Amino acid sequence: MSDTDRSSLVAPAPAEAAAYVRDAHERRAFCTLLGRCHVAYDGRTTSHAGPADRLVALKPDLTLLVHAADGPKPQNWLAADALDVDVEDGSLLLTATRESPTEELRVTFESIEQAAAMAADETDATVEISGTEADLKERVLADPALVEPGFRALAAERDTPAGPVDVFGRDSSGRAVAVELKATRAGPDAASQLSRYVDALRRDLHADADVRGILVAPSCTPRTRRVLARDGHEFVSLEP
Amino acid sequence: MSDTDRSSLVAPAPAEAAAYVRDAHERRAFCTLLGRCHVAYDGRTTSHAGPADRLVALKPDLTLLVHAADGPKPQNWLAADALDVDVEDGSLLLTATRESPTEELRVTFESIEQAAAMAADETDATVEISGTEADLKERVLADPALVEPGFRALAAERDTPAGPVDVFGRDSSGRAVAVELKATRAGPDAASQLSRYVDALRRDLHADADVRGILVAPSCTPRTRRVLARDGHEFVSLEP
DNA sequence: CGTTAAATGTCGTCC
DNA sequence: GGACGACGTTTAACG
Questions:
Q1: How do residues A104-154 score in pLDDT, each as one tens digit?
Q2: Confidence band (pLDDT; 50, 70, 90) for B3?
Q3: Domain extent at residue A13
Q4: CA distance B52 to chain A (A)
Q5: B113 and B11 co-located in one domain
Q6: Residue B194 sits in a domain of what CATH number?
Q7: Which nucleotide has its C1' atom closest to residue B96's CA?
Q8: Which residue, A59, A174, A194, B200, is the most exposed by fewest CB within 10 angstroms?
Q9: Which of A20, A23, A88, A32 is nearest to A58 (CA)?
Q10: What is the number of alpha carbons within 13 Å of residue A98 lying toward its C-beta?
Q11: B43 CB-to-strand D distance under 7 Å
């Protein structure tokens, strides 16, 4: 890596910044720009944001992110498959594009305070996560009595015409049970999902088969309770 | 702003970087760090990611973002309400914390290639977006015949015990109609939502009132079609 | 502060 | 490549 590569730029001229970003792009490096810019997006929706100080980040995979001062979400972003770096009317202009869906993100800088870049290594640093719905499923399969005494888990991801049921089993009296799992507080969608699965199982297992539905989650909202009650299903509180 | 404030750092020592980040934090500036680090999160779940080259960004509102080389989403993030900047065992350590919910994000740098910062102005640069569900609603209210000839829109966001119906109206023969809008391709949840509203309206308007349900979206998935058919509802294709 | 529904959601997985 | 459901979803609107 040359000395130039290792340097960042302070208050660069647009042409200098353009060369820097192009170089970063070619090296598949991270690149950050801090400065005043305005932003236009056109694709799934259309948006425009006026001039303000922002953080613009270009990632090795051509993801372009535009962050304003507030909030964890970027104001605009694009997982692009092409990037143009130009100087227009004396301003640095980044144009990121993507096909399928057709999208375009344009960032125009009025001024640039800082530019930095770093070539990324090839290390695959996957994130290990625990405490998810998959963990809750493992818990239930390992100890089905957590759902209710006498419950036997017979299958995970059991297929139905309405989609896979998280856990399928039978209660102590032999009745079929569909279990829908949520790792976080459950909303009405979870209850609707459970109803679809139970209906499908009733048809699948044979006419008027007796199928119970149980929603398992740390908690659920009141409206979810009402949907469950309306459809004759139950709720069991369980942490992942 | 002093000369030091305007400078970025190239390959700084941990203590130097720590002072730089603390200063940025105090000035409520954007700050970016490019370097090799590992990351640990504990809160809603627990996660850990081993050493790799990453982009770490600190925003004026104390949002901490950790980006790996791929993908538009940060690998880890935290909308923090406190940040500690320390040097431990010769490494820069950022510890962002939040209460309610209790969360912690720790970033430990093995090496730092670049650090940059920029104080943010106070400009409130809101993003103007069009092509959303709100736009689709305006379209339907302005020209209800887009839903079907003779349709009259009587209310937007009409309240029901199951929540507000996007558009409520009557068809050419006077039958009540609930319209559920989606700006993008609709999935099964949209059909379930519609069913809940129609059921609530039937009870609300009087026993066995005749209420039609129409899902309006650019398109919908096959399973969504089946849910609509099962519940006797309809689909109308319309762009926002 | 809790609940609810939208989102340029994004991401993995399976077909 | 589409469909489907999870996600540390985040965010805005409303009571």
A1: 999 999 999 999 999 998 777 788 889 999 999 999 999 999 999 999 999
A2: very low
A3: 3-119
A4: 6
A5: yes
A6: 3.40.1350.10
A7: D8
A8: A174
A9: A32
A10: 18
A11: yes
